[in-house]
Amino acid sequence: MLVVQKYGGTSVGDLERIRNVARRIAKYRDEGHDVVVVVSAMAGETDRLLQLAHELVEEPSPRELDMLVATGEQVSSSLLAMALNAMGYPAKALLAFQIPIKTDELFGKARIRDIATERMREELKKGHVLIIAGFQGITENGDITTLGRGGSDTTAVAIAAALGADVCEIFTDVDGVYTADPRIVPKARKIAKISYDEMLELASMGAKVLEIRSVEFAKIYKVPVHVRSSFSDEPGTMVVEEDESMEKVLVSGVTYNRNEARISLYGVPDKPGVAAKIFGPIADAGIVVDMIIQTGRPDGRADMTFTVPKTDYKNTLRLVEKLSSEIGIEKIEGAEDIAKVSIVGAGMRAHPGVAAKMFNVLANHGINIHMISTSEIKISCVIDEKYTELAVRALHEAFGLDREPEQEG
Ligand code: ADP
Ligand code: ASP
Ligand code: MG
Prior knowledge:
Oligomer: single chain
Radius of gyration: 22 Å
Largest sheet: 8 strands, mixed
Bound molecules: adenosine-5'-diphosphate, aspartic acid, magnesium ion
CATH architecture of the largest domain: 3-Layer(aba) Sandwich
Strand order of the largest sheet: 3-6-2-1-9-11-12-10
CATH superfamily of the largest domain: Acetylglutamate kinase-like
Strand content: 25-35%
Structural class: alpha/beta
CATH topology of the largest domain: Carbamate kinase
């Protein structure tokens, strides 16, 4: 079997844990499997590097920032390879440029374009365990990029897809995907099996246990993903194609996301082309706008509110301020202390009652809803950040997620 494994930051957080991971990999080798490992930086390292840069200058250049933060994974991958070698298991650490893992030029949130497999196959044939630095890539010009926070998951699934691995195991500090973040909801339950689509919604809505692009890759290339703990042998959560039994669950999870900020534009001229003028430059800057609400006003103007990642907040404000006089926006205002709480479930397709119930639960807890968005299988509400935990727990309980799954109909 060819197994791709990914170990997150906590799993390689110190030398003892690195040894623990090495022992785990050794067991797979003893069973005769080929193993390709992707590692994150040691816990806290990426944050530490980012903070260093931001202490030095207010807005570090994205290219240099990627040069800096990519080093975290170089450290952990080489240490893990050393540990394995010392145990008598030949291993080799590889950085993105050595494979290469080619990406586009969007520093800080680059997308993987191509992964060459020749070098990896060669090394595997020699009997090496490959330890690949996650999170990083290389552009056509040879510049180092990173894939965005949590991006090692994406490296792992993309490599599993490229190599046609039998499974991609994501080893982390929880033993699977839960009905809500177990750190916030102690009563959350582990989900044994979840569809790519539901996992995609959970991930996009904030369940950071899997990075969203990793789920996109898994879905497109049908990579079976197994999310499990690096501290136990318990089976975790299988992320696979949807089947009959999954359809019946009304709500499968509650998520929250505190990483977005809100921007409101008041008194925007209400005529064709204005939205395009506003959102064109934002898209060109590689900024992903999430929710958008536009409300018409009696005076022929409109108010517009939208959300962007917090990391893009200042940049987006600057962009709209630049457009302000050209377009004629009366007032621009924004807030960073918001959170988005969502409920996700394949069974809520065509179930209007679910939304009403969600609004009721929030209302009963005195939580005001600022924005709402829905898709076939999720409903999200933007609320004040300070109510995040209260909202998540209340929704988890109201939809019966601490008990057996609710059935449709
Ligand atoms: P790693 O460093 O291994 O990539 P992450 O911190 O990125 O780990 O992801 C694991 C964390 O995701 C858990 O510690 C947990 O707090 C959080 N999490 C959020 N939502 C969920 C969920 N629905 N199920 C499991 N974990 C979740
Ligand atoms: N080290 C990177 C981060 O902290 C990537 C990852 O851990 O997946 O975001
Ligand atoms: Mg992660």
